[in-house]
Amino acid sequence: MAMRLRTEMPALTGITEWVNGEVNKNDLASKPVLIHFWSVSCGMCKESLPEINKMRETYPDLQIVGIHMPRSQKDTDISSVKETITKYELKHPQGIDNEHNVVDSFENEFVPAFYLFDHEGVLRHRSAGEKALSMLKKPLERVLQPEGATS
User: Fold this and answer.
1) Residue 100 within a domain
2) Each residue's pLDDT tens digit, 111-134
3) Is 136 part of any domain?
4) What global pTM score does this model have?
5) The three-state (H, E, C) secondary structure of the chain, written as one string
6) Is 126 within the bounds of a domain?
7) Is residue 80 part of a domain?
8) Is the separation of the CB atoms in 37 and 103 below 8 Å?
9) CATH number of the domain that 13 lies in?
10) How many domains does the chain have?
């Protein structure tokens, strides 16, 4: 059961530890937001991390928040998650969600997974798995268009 489109963004509460600054739903208001679920044990996730960094540089108006979703007990090791964050130069806020509080509020089951919210905090696109990043491109461009602009 996945979160439905046009749903309002859930609160980002119950995070075990934040890296690169804590954010909450109010901090993210009025700008497009990409919530990215990933896991330290997921090879595909790691392959997509440089791409996420590129998006952060390319779209300064897009706020990106990473949520680390452990898939096993081993994944809850905060120091190895932090090492990965440093190694891949993930400079945007990263919530380490060891108790799956945010994971559950998003009804998310997969990594990597992407949830794109518009400037009103409404879910416009979600995708998960191998092609998730490529599926994100068009919705992202739509959401980042100035208000009132049409393609």
Assistant:
1) yes
2) 999 999 999 999 999 999 989 999
3) no
4) 0.94
5) CCCCCCCECCCCCCCCEEECCCCCCCCCCCCCEEEEEECCCCHHHHHHHHHHHHHHHHCCCCEEEEEECCCCHHHHCHHHHHHHHHHCCCCCCEEECCCCHHHHHCCCCCCCEEEEECCCCEEEEEEECCCHHHHHHHHHHHHHCCCCCCC
6) no
7) yes
8) yes
9) 3.40.30.10
10) 1
